[in-house]
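Replying to the earlier thread about multi-chain prediction with a worked example.

Input:
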Amino acid sequence: MAREIAKAYEPQQIEPRWAEYWVAEALFRADAAAPGPVFSIVIPPPNVTGSLHIGHMLDHTEIDILTRWHRMRGFNTLYLPGTDHAGISTQRVVVRQLAEQGVDYRALGREEFERRVWKWKEESGGTITRQMRQIGETCDWSREKFTLSPELSRVVREVFVRLYEEGLIYRAHYLVNWCPSCLTALSDLETVHEERQGHLWHIRYPVVGTNEYLMVATTRPETMLGDTGVAVHPEDARYKHLVGKNVRLPLMNREIPIVADAMVDREFGTGAVKVTPAHDPNDFECGRRHGLAEIDVMTDDGHMNAAAGAYAGLERFEARQRVVADLKAQGLLEKITDHSHAIALCERCKTVVEPRASTQWFCKMKPLAEPAIAAVERGEIRIVPDNRREEYFHWMRNIRDWVISRQLWWGHRIPAWHCGDCKEVTVARETPAKCSKCGSAKIAQDSDVLDTWFSSALWPFSTLGWPEETLDFKKYYPTSVLVTAYDILFFWVARMIMMGLHFTDQVPFRAVYLHSLVRTADGEKMSKSKGTGLDPVALNQQYGTDAMRFCLASMAAPGTDIVLSEDRLASARNFANKIWNAARFLFVNFDRFEQGGARIEELASPDVRLGAPYATGGAVALADAWIFSRLAGTTELVNEALANYRFHEAAQGVYQFFWGDFCDWYIEWVKPDLQNADGDRAVVAWKNLFAAFEAALRLLHPFMPFLTEELWHQLPQRAGAKSIALDQYPEALPKWVDVAAEKHFELLQEVIVALRNVRAEMKLDPRKKIAAEFSSAAGVIRDLVERDREAILRLAILSELNISSEKLVSSGGTLRSTAQFDVRVAFAEAVDMVAELARLRKEKDRLERDIEDKTKRLADETFRSRAPERIVRGLETTLVERRIEYAKVNDRLGQLEQGG
RNA sequence: GGGCGACUAGCUCAGUUGGUUAGAGCGCUCCCCUCACACGGGAGAGGUCAAAGGUUCAAGUCCUUUGUCGCCCACCA
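Result:
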């Protein structure tokens, strides 16, 4: 029957209490005028993070861990939160809705606000693009009501105008990706490709004035309605005689020329290509080379237009069927073959993208990319992990001009005005009164907005007051690190680097840490636009935000993606509970010690932070020396790991220390010392226990901020102590490292484990104390055991322990041996001979194999001469130990087999 | 068509520059509601590191090939 659980850690009781506190007090306020080292960090803008999905919670988790870590190490930390972005996130919409009801979203509290956002997101469905259009139609929210902060708008205009004046932004008629559902142009990055099984239709185009046909192959037959030529390869003998002639375009009854162009691949299809300049990138270029007309046969929403003749009004895929049917009826369809190819889909709505010629604004990328490549090559920006560097280079070296105009509802309007009279364009920082070319007052602002990533690219400096030389800008630019998921390396990171370098002549950040994506159990990427996220609010309530954070951190090994499992979350929750209960143990004892003379001020003494553990009469107890040595090791590990963005190593190191060392061994070890309320040792033990625990809390704080903050406040603190987040992060103290203590303590652990092992094998009742014998040839080891005899008796549940140097015999008991010592429990009736023999034989086999392997390697002269001495010596030592173990096992096996 | 990553215990995953008996969490087996904690304690079992070659004194780790899965990039109609 399980005991009633009344002492479990309840995250919801403490986490909300501290939420406001740390945000306001501890972390996000940075003072540019303050002295000291700087750590500044950029977080993704809200259209990226959404903040609600676990996938992007990793951003916040890792950023917050880093931020807290730096803050505690005395850095003047700036964390640039993304609140002012061109994109309209669901959050922004909800903020707006609340504002219309006269509610300040901040007053709702974080949880309630997130719940509402989540709800709205689920109820409204679809993409925000479409949601916004609906809103625009049903209420008076106009684009202007979504006006972004004036500061950011000013920066965006400034940048746009400068780039335009430098000739890097231009307006052109060009072929772009068009989404017929979102009704906007898209950059290449905003499309996704999907391999689909399609067809290749072979169509006969009659050559005018002959009986010949020219056969073309196409995957999109409906575009033939916009054909204005047919191209063949200039060297192609099959068609050479036809170049210069015309074909009659079927269905449209239009004569179009046959041209020779090297773009044609003679091997593919029929070697003749229909040219549709308005609907295909290759054809567009080809059409320009040969002066062919562009005929756009579609409407914005993917229907055929008047230029499609009889097919006008049909939806594009319907038109495809009709075109094919009609060609077939006219006997012009030669054949249909299967053809699988990757088609481009709109990233947001998954509609098939239509390549289409249209007039858009573009940004020239080559001149911006070159310095950005160089900066990473020179190491001015470190990209972690390394392999992402190569991806970055590959993309940057093959970069193409960027379509920056979008026909969307919101965002930064393009600061360009079209003249109704002279049709010229005026680009300006401030709204002009008249056309700069002809002076006409009939001007209207371009209706397009900028790609949301355009303003995102300016984030690192637009948030710091650029173009003014503000104190913030001077102090915090470049930022220290950018943390984000690798999926927006090109969208965002690369563009920030380009824009940062172009406008400030400095890199925008010194390091880019690209973390994994969180995937669902099916391996799908968790993302808000796909709706595949788990609900972090629900999970947080179930397991606690600290558990969630710790779990994410402990799984965040760079390079691979994370599959979030409830098992791991539960494990992290259990860890939180473990800490909670360890703290309870301390609190229970605390009162007694206060009465026993230990003063709060003493406990909070800084001595232990600087030097060695507290000592009794000048001597540090072994267990104390050991735990502080382990603490020092863990501290070094955690600091080192965080410095290299190895969050999982840091988290796992803290976990191991806290649970495996501190709780499992140290607390158990010192318990009796604490029971004894009067006496020097009791006070010292308590002080050390407190000091180690307190240091561990600080070490753990970035990973479990709420829990550690709460517990830290319940521990005695110096007057005026405000928050653990403002306290000092443990730095590795060389004085604490005690190699001998670690080695000695480990030996005692081995002795205890060996004895427990024997007990378990005998299936002894844990309450039953038994007598045991200990034997070692080494006096040092016997002394060690002697000195901590009490602890061994208690932890191995022994009635007595006889220590000697005599060889132990196995008859009438069970023996455990290591190279250093033997332990024996005399309890004949409980010995399971069969199991014991099986165990020993297995052990013997293993040792035999190991000894053979090592002997062979050591006998190898090449090994001895080439391997480092450290390795050879280590192997020799181990071999000696193995031989002792083998002799002991063999000996015992012989006794058992004989004795029966 | 290019490029990248993964394949390690039943499951989910660690394992930085090659080096002494390959680790964790969950699950499993056995014993325990022992006065911080059953979201716990104690003790175990469990892996020829996807396959085959190679380099090396030494390979989970480096190279080559193969297989399976996943991802990114790509204007072949």
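Chain A has a mean pLDDT of 83.

Feel free to reuse this layout for your own posts.
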